[in-house]
Structures are given as C-alpha cells and as structure tokens.
Amino acid sequence: MNILISGGSGFLGSAFSKEILKRYQSADTDLHITWLTRDSSQAHPNDIQMMTYDELAQTDLGFDVILNLAGAGIADARWSDERKEQLLASRIKPTESILEFIARTSTKPKLLVSGSAIGWYGTQGDKPLNENSGFEPDFAHQLCDEWEQLALEATNYGVPVAIVRTGVVIHPDGGMLGKLLTPFKMGVGGQLGDGKQIMSWISREDWVGAAIFIIEQHLTGKAGSGTIDTGEMDTENVERAATVDNTLPTANETPAVVYNLTAPNPVTNHTFTKTLGAWLHRPTFFTLPAFLLKLMFGEMATLLIDGQKVLPQALLESGYTFRQPTLKQALEEQD
C-alpha cells in the first residue's frame, strides 16, 4: 500500500507515519509512505520518501490513500486579517494541489482522508454534538467548511472522501499540551475563565489509531459497520446518542463521510486543569479571567473560553475502541 501525506512531518502526520509503518512491517506487509513537502531538503526518517509539490504535479506514481493534513496552527497566533488569510491559504493550496493530481492521474486513490476540526460546529456551549449536528457561523466554521468543501471535490473524480474533524489532541510532544507544560510545571498553570467550558479532546495515540482504523475500514469495505462499544464513555452521552448518519452530500454517487476525532469523555476546562496539575504534581491556583483572554487574544479567545461538546459517535458506531478514553489515561499512558 502506498500512502501520500501532506503535513507528514507535523505533530499528527509524523506520529501516524511511525505507527502505521510499525504495524505493517510487523505484519510483513508492503507499505510505502511519502511526505509532501515544499522543501526537498527537509529532514525525514529513512523509511519515509519525500516529494515536493512540483514533483507531485508531474509524477506518474499511484497512491492508494492520500492523507491531507497540511495547515498552519489555528491557535499559533492572534487572528488578524492577515493571519486569517494565512490559515485559509495553508489549507486550500495543498488541497488544490492534491485535487489537481487526482484529476490527472490514471490510477485514482482508493480514499482521500482530509483534515478538518471540530471548529466546524462553531460555539455551541455544552450541547452534545455528533456528525449529524448543525453549526453556528463564525470564523472557525468558515475556515473548516471551505477546507472540507474543497476536499469533497475529489468525489467528482470517483475518489471517496473521509473528513476527520479533530478536537484538541493531547500529547506532550506538541499541540496545546506541549505549550501548557512549562507554565504548569512552574506552578503558574490554572483554569481559563470560569472553567465551565467543555473541552473535546483526543489522545494522539487514539487520533492515530482512529485514522488507521478509518483507512482500513474503507479499504476493506467495512465502513459504517459495527456496534457502539461505550467502554468508559459518559453515560449521559450514551443516553443522548442515536444512530448517526455520517454521510456527506456530494454531486455524484461517490461516497463521502465525516468522523469526529474526539474522545468519548469531554471534560470542562476546570477538570482539565485539575487533572493536568495532579499529573504533574503542581498546584493550579491561578485563573485567567475571560476579559483578559479577550484582550490578549482578541477573536481567537473563543477557542479558550467557549466550549464544544463534540462526541465521536460515527467512530464508535463503526466499531472503534478507544485505547485512552479518559483524560487521566491520555496523560499517564504516553506512547
């Protein structure tokens, strides 16, 4: 199997590559990973191939799966007009290059897995949200929706699409947790605002596991099969869950689906703060009030003080079992 990854060297792409190579090599199965890059001299593991976007525009190679993860970090800088344009362009341009490749290649991929985020749903407080839920319009929704709609154009060429809407990914190597470790270790970590906002998170191990699961389900024709394994899932979430139709509308008969890549047990910011402090054996007395966060981050403060309760219902119904369904496990059981 040949897999092409945009954003392969990033926080998620590198972990995905390492894990799927390990699994397939241990099963003595032929697997090749290629990272799309703008810099051909970029450092990379020996068992990873590199390809520039210019080379993609000319290659005759075929890929079974394309994993589209390229995009600047949404929380890395204040949302100025210029930054908003950068966030959009960093997602749209790589996706356009992939679509151009799909359009001209004679050997079409069997699946395009394209990144998105739970920001698609907009700010909806503690309302449980699954793949059937609607959205509230804001910048995060606009950003995710434009990225998703472009990726769905792959179905025009007969390529099935799986959109993965990712929550806050937990691992000390990077992401939000990587940024929080230093202040929390110094004993100056604390909750944001009133701490009641819901945080929909997923461990990096489960993000990788879920992505591999989705790919294998689609390639074997088992997508959408299975029953819910609730495990340690919050019973309130189970009671509110009904069978979800995670298909997305397309202009043809080529299928497209969406998955929420979040853990089944979202937590409040207060709980997250206390759990992280306990894991690090550090106090968590400090609080950053909402008004100060808005002064510091402007519109981007919505990511910190407005919650989303996004549930991975389609993933559970497909039969995926979470390895780290609780935040405590995600912190203590690092891969």
Automatic annotation (TrEMBL):
<feature type="domain" description="DUF1731">
    <location>
        <begin position="288"/>
        <end position="333"/>
    </location>
</feature>
<dbReference type="InterPro" id="IPR036291">
    <property type="entry name" value="NAD(P)-bd_dom_sf"/>
</dbReference>
<dbReference type="Pfam" id="PF01370">
    <property type="entry name" value="Epimerase"/>
</dbReference>
<feature type="domain" description="NAD-dependent epimerase/dehydratase">
    <location>
        <begin position="3"/>
        <end position="222"/>
    </location>
</feature>
<keyword id="KW-0560">Oxidoreductase</keyword>
<dbReference type="Pfam" id="PF08338">
    <property type="entry name" value="DUF1731"/>
</dbReference>
<protein>
    <submittedName>
        <fullName>Epimerase</fullName>
        <ecNumber>1.1.1.-</ecNumber>
    </submittedName>
</protein>
<dbReference type="InterPro" id="IPR013549">
    <property type="entry name" value="DUF1731"/>
</dbReference>
<dbReference type="InterPro" id="IPR001509">
    <property type="entry name" value="Epimerase_deHydtase"/>
</dbReference>
<dbReference type="GO" id="GO:0016491">
    <property type="term" value="F:oxidoreductase activity"/>
</dbReference>
